[in-house]
Amino acid sequence: MPGSIGAVAFSRTGDPAIGEFGDAKLLRAYGNVPEDLSAL
User: What's the pLDDT at 35?
Assistant: First the structure.
């Protein structure tokens, strides 16, 4: 998506001491963002 502008807000929980985190949950997407966010 060259030239596109967008932003995503996400949340995830985890334990930084051991580097273990759960899957991110999308809170909001603004502007031009891909449907499949795994490409980011």
Answer: 83
Q: What is the pTM of this model?
A: 0.60
CA distances from 23 to 2, 3, 39, 40 (A): 27, 28, 15, 14
User: b/e for 11-31, b at 16 or more Cβ within 10 A?
Assistant: eeeeeeeeeeeeeeeeeeeee
Cα→Cα distances 29→4, 5, 24, Å:
13, 11, 13
3-state helix, strand, coil in the chain (%, to 5): 10, 40, 50
Q: Quick one: tokens of 6?
A: 């967008």
